[in-house]
Specification:
Layout lengths: L10 E8 L14 H11 L3 E6 L4 E5 L2 E6 L2 E6 L9 H9 L4 E9 L15 H11 L6 E7 L8 E7 L11 E9 L3 H4 L12 H11 L10 E6 L5 E7 L2 E8 L6 E9 L5 H12 L3 E7 L3 H12 L3 E11 L3 E10 L5
Antiparallel strand pairs: 1-5, 1-6, 2-3, 3-4, 4-5, 6-8, 7-8, 9-13, 9-14, 10-11, 11-12, 12-13, 14-16, 15-16
Helix pairs in contact: 6-7
Bound molecules: S-adenosylmethionine.
Length: 339
Amino acid sequence: MAISGFEGFEKRLELQFSSHDPDIGVGLRNLDFKSIEKVLHEVQCTVVSALGNQHFDSYVLSESSLFIYPTMIIIKTCGTTQLLKSVQPFIHLAETLNLHIVALRYTRGSFIFPQAQPHPYTSFSEEVVYLEDNIPESLCYKKASVIPSKLTKHSWHVFSAGAEEYTEDDLSGLYTVEVCMTDLDQTLARKFFRHPNDGKNGDSAGREMTEITSINRINPKAKICDFAFDPCGYSMNGLDGDRYSTIHVTPEDGFSYASFECVGSIYNDDMADMVKKAVKVFGPGTVSVATTNAGRDMCMRIKNAVESLAMKCRSSSTDEFPAAGMVMFQTFTTRRNRI
Ligand SMILES: C[S@+](CC[C@H](N)C(=O)[O-])C[C@H]1O[C@@H](n2cnc3c(N)ncnc32)[C@H](O)[C@@H]1O
């Protein structure tokens, strides 16, 4: 049997819902925890920590994160989890609250260990078939695309489907940034290993990692829910008003990986600075940045911010999705010689 390590690259799903009733209140946040746990069981992960605020609930999972807003669910999971098994259950649970699905977006990078993935994650076309079989016909504005890069091992997979076409006028002003980093600096990665017999649990060791790595300075306004795995690995969710951020770290040498994801607002221009601070925490050899609806100006600012860390932009590609708008995929590698 081939020996492989932990698959850090996450699969990410965003589900948007709508109601005929204008007074939805807390909407999906009314879902009871037992029902959520049942869906997560299908996906093959569990909740290890949770934190909510007046806008949304966040869960750190044994494999990444879940965010529940009144009309939106974002779930990302890594390893060999069965993320897409959550599509049908979430759609049905939402229907019990009179919320119907209006848009879905599935994204992922290129797996480090593709041969270790179960069906349908063995090929993007299989994932697309699975998704098309499990979403209602009303989501008719569909597109699947693999956005390439000059780094042959890195491409960005996107499937988007919506009941309506995306128009710039729909802009809520929010956009998403998904950063994937590999080949982490070994000294920095070591900070995400637990110290044996230190008397700490996953929460207190996670809190310590958040502080010693300066993750808490990426967005000082964010309330952080963090967790350290044993013997290594780290996850956090940040809550800043209605905006979330999330970081996941697989620090093992040979397949090290970290991700930073954040929702940004066009009315708030601190994103490039946050991406820069997040990349600095890990000193990666390779970085990819996928932005959805950020606009070319913000993409350029992010590019300049990453390049200021002795990295060089190797490629930049865009694609348009009828229900999701513009996705830009940029890749970077370090300029420094690594020992
Ligand atoms: C869940 S975390 C972060 C996930 C994130 N997508 C990533 O890879 O960066 C994964 C790291 O935690 C470690 N880990 C330790 N115990 C784990 C567990 N019970 N479940 C998942 N990962 C665990 C893995 O070896 C890996 O280093």
